[in-house]
Automatic annotation (TrEMBL), chain A:
Coiled-coil residue windows: none
Molecular function terms, GO-annotated: ATP binding; ATP hydrolysis activity; transmembrane transporter activity
Protein family according to the UniProt entry: Belongs to the ABC transporter superfamily.
GO cellular component assignments: plasma membrane
PANTHER family in the cross-refs: IMPORT ATP-BINDING PROTEIN, LIPOPROTEIN-RELEASING SYSTEM ATP-BINDING PROTEIN LOLD
Matches recorded under InterPro entries: AAA+_ATPase (IPR003593), ABC_transporter-like_ATP-bd (IPR003439), ABC_transpr_LolD-like (IPR015854), P-loop_NTPase (IPR027417)
Keywords, comma-separated and alphabetical: ATP-binding, Nucleotide-binding
Keyword Nucleotide-binding: yes
Gene3D superfamilies the record matches: P-loop containing nucleotide triphosphate hydrolases
Protein name: ATP-binding cassette domain-containing protein
PROSITE patterns (UniProt xref): ABC_TRANSPORTER_2
UniProt KW Nucleotide-binding keyword: yes
Domain (ABC transporter) ranges: 10-245
From TrEMBL, chain B:
Taxonomic source organism: Streptomyces phyllanthi
Transmembrane segments: 20-40, 52-72, 93-117, 146-166, 368-388, 394-416, 437-462
Record keywords: Membrane, Transmembrane, Transmembrane helix
Top-level lineage group: Bacteria
Start and end residues of each stretch annotated as Disordered: 164-235, 248-273
Designated name of the protein: Uncharacterized protein
Length: 245, 471
């Protein structure tokens, strides 16, 4: 076991994982520096989500190591990983997975309340974050009454409210239209930079990846320097039509 | 065949549930056949046999209730993307559900017939051969049509009720202003964001549905057809009760049923179930009737099967009203529990427990009301039999066991259904790093709150109901 470099907040080596036999990741190594925004890019099915889940301790890689701040994550028990996720990590799903029974501010305050904060303190922090992300007006609405982009912003607020060390965002803007996508991403990155939060951002969109400090490309579960997919050729199998008909 | 194949590949727990339905159906079938046996043995006393047959209605009702609850929870026949992809919509799946239910209940009926014949002594080779030959009129020929009719009662009722309660509901596309994307897309929309939609991974569809369904005017002609699978209380009776209690829209007038009654779209909060005042009123009326009837002492009595006379007819009517009141009040009380639980400055635990309880009030409350009604009835019966008439016949015991078991199992199935419906939210909470112990504590808190409210209530009602019966 080699100790990771000191300036990496998150460091992974040789991550290999397969979902019930279907290969997802093959020997992926990467380091995430403190305070940077790292984009993990690649087409669908290239193993981005699996990589993020391995890094955040939701999934134990079958091979390889994950270190967080010089602590091995891959040797932790499930309870310790759970506490690590609760206290140090934030997670944003591709779909806004809010608790439908709670209002927006209660959803945002939930991570703090689960950590044992008082209700008043949690509410204040939640309302502040909702204001910062321009959804302060929705604080008392339930998720069903919000627009999709508003919900996603509430999710971002929920991930940021606990001031995590690392924020994992798995295609946070995939279901949104482009205008909303840009807005949500900019608020996310701005908030992360101003609070010194490290962000690992999975995306298949080059425009989204452009907002990051650094990009790691994945293709078919392997890390690649650049993705050069062959251009789709002419429609296969169709006979060329002739103009002389 | 599809039903068989889907049934075969299921999880052992699902098989266990189906086996329990089979057992319940066997028990009810056996009780029905025993009524027939009594009629054969006493051809000149039809009143007693008819009474026995009438008493079989209670186990029959609970068996059907349980079968429908199991059919609703059956993962094999829930609409899902894998089957929708090959064109199996809710309509066909309803048929599959009905066939699966018919299979398990028919199996139960066959078991009942075998056991009955065995006890009569028609089949030999096992212990207890012809043990009850004299009671079941073994010397007489068993009429085949009557036997088949009685045995077909449980499968037919159960599968028809399953089909009715799981039928896809909603207006046809032509009534709904011709939505562009046809009935299948409409159906998906009706399901909302709860189910993952393969064509719209973002769930924007559900969002639209939520918006339109819960807009200002859900009955406007522009609203999309809304297909619903099942009603809130998990069977047609409960829907009828809900309709009685709300007293607003009737399904047969062609208006769209209340969107709030669909438990599978929990994106929008459901309004508080309105059955509580009705339930309390019916409960009080039942108790009053019982008290009033018992003043006249032993009026023309309705005998309980098992050899001992029961209370007068008025007392029984009171019992029925009391049970109905408890069933009607169940959802409202559950909602109230949730409201109280999350009332004053709640932390994460009370907030989650209370809100979820409010949301699941309809799904959980109705079976809970049934369990309470059965419990209070059992308590009252136990009081009666422990007093002057200590003798309880084996068939009465079987019937009581059936009713109690079915009610409790239905409640368990409903709880499972609620858990399955919330699986996505639970997974999201776990991804957030919510401790599993906290989620367990939330579940315990909910159960404790329900027990704290319903336990004393049931006990009080049972005590009051038993008072006029004790000598």
């Amino acid at each position: 076991m080699v100790a990771p470099p000191d300036n990496d907040v998150l460091w992974a080596r040789g991550l290999t994982h397969a979902h019930d036999g279907s290969p997802a990741l093959h020997s992926v190594s990467l380091g995430v520096r403190d305070g940077e925004i790292l984009a993990v890019s690649g087409p669908r099915g290239s193993g981005k989500t699996t990589l993020l889940r391995c890094l955040s301790g939701q999934l134990l890689p079958q091979e390889g190591e994950v270190w967080f701040n010089s602590t091995p994550v891959h040797t932790m028990g499930p309870l310790t990983r759970e506490r690590l996720r609760r206290d140090r990590f934030g997670w944003i799903d591709p779909e806004p997975a809010l608790v439908p029974e709670l209002t927006a501010w209660e959803n945002v305050a939930l991570p703090l309340m689960l950590r044992g904060f008082g209700r008043r303190a949690a509410k204040t922090a939640a309302l502040e974050w909702l204001q910062r992300l321009d959804v302060g007006g929705c604080a008392r609405k339930r998720p069903y009454a919000l627009l999709h982009s508003e919900r996603q912003r509430v999710v971002v607020a929920r991930a940021l409210v606990g001031s995590p060390t690392v924020l994992f965002a798995d295609e946070p803007t995939a279901p949104l239209h482009r205008a909303e996508r840009g807005h949500v991403l900019r608020t996310l990155t701005a908030a992360a930079r101003s609070h010194g939060i490290t962000v690992v951002l999975a995306t298949h969109d080059p425009e989204t990846a452009a907002l990051a400090d650094r990009t790691v490309s994945l293709l078919d579960g392997r890390r690649v320097r650049t993705v050069h997919l062959p251009q789709p050729a002419e429609t296969e199998g169709r006979a060329a039509c002739s103009l002389s008909v | 065949m599809l039903a068989l194949r889907l049934a075969r590949g299921a999880h052992p727990v699902v098989h266990l549930r189906r086996a329990l339905v089979t057992v319940a159906s066997a028990g009810t079938g056996f009780l029905l056949l025993c009524a027939l046996g009594h009629a054969l043995a006493h051809p000149y006393a039809p009143a007693g046999s008819a009474l026995r047959l009438a008493w079989c209605a209670v186990p029959l009702a609970t068996t059907v209730y349980f079968a429908v609850a199991v059919a609703r929870t059956d993962p094999g026949t829930r609409p899902r993307p894998g089957l929708a992809a090959i064109g199996l919509g809710p309509g066909r799946l309803m048929a599959v559900s009905a066939v699966t239910t018919a299979l398990s209940t028919t199996l139960g009926s066959m078991l009942a017939l075998l056991f009955f014949l065995h006890l009569r002594g028609d089949l030999t080779g096992l212990p207890f051969d012809g043990h009850a030959a004299d009671v079941l009129a073994a010397d007489r020929h068993l009429p085949v049509p009557a036997t088949l009719t009685l045995l077909a009662l449980v499968p037919a009722t159960a599968s028809v009720t399953t089909a009715l309660s799981l039928r896809p509901r909603g207006r046809r596309p032509e009534d709904a202003g011709r939505t562009a994307d046809g009935p299948k897309a409409v159906w998906r929309r009706g399901r909302g964001t709860r189910e993952k939609d393969p064509a719209h991974p973002g769930g924007t569809d559900g969002r639209q549905a939520g918006q339109r369904d819960h807009g200002e005017d859900p009955d406007s002609s522009g609203a999309p057809a809304r297909a619903r699978r099942g009603s809130t209380g998990s069977h047609a009776l409960s829907e009828a009760l809900a309709l009685c209690s709300s007293g607003t829209s009737a399904p047969w007038t062609g208006t769209v049923p209340d969107p709030e009654q669909d438990p599978y779209r929990s994106t929008a909060p459901q309004p508080a179930p309105g059955g509580l005042p009705w339930g309390v009123a019916v409960l009080a009326a039942g108790l009053a009737v019982e008290m009033y009837a018992s003043r006249y002492g032993t009026a023309p009595g309705l005998a309980l099967p098992g050899g001992s006379a029961g209370g007068p007819a008025g007392v029984l009517g009171g019992w029925v009203l009391t049970a109905l009141g408890l069933i009607l009040a169940g959802p409202g009380l559950t909602h109230l529990c949730g409201q109280v639980l999350q009332a004053v400055r709640p932390g994460a635990l009370r907030l989650l427990a209370g809100r979820v309880l409010q949301e699941e009030a309809r799904r959980i409350g109705r079976p809970l009301g049934v369990v309470c009604a059965v419990a209070s009835g059992t308590y009252a019966m136990a009081t009666v039999y422990s007093g002057a008439r200590p003798h309880v016949g084996p068939l009465t015991t079987l019937g009581a066991l059936l009713v109690t078991g079915c009610a409790v199992l239905t409640l368990a199935t409903a709880a499972l259904e609620a858990r399955n419906a919330r699986a996505e939210t639970t997974a999201a909470l776990l991804r957030l790093g919510a401790p599993a112990t906290a989620l367990r504590a939330v579940a315990l808190l909910r159960a404790g709150a329900l027990f704290a409210v319903f336990g004393p209530l049931t006990w009080t009602v049972a005590e009051l109901a038993a008072t006029p019966l004790t000598p």
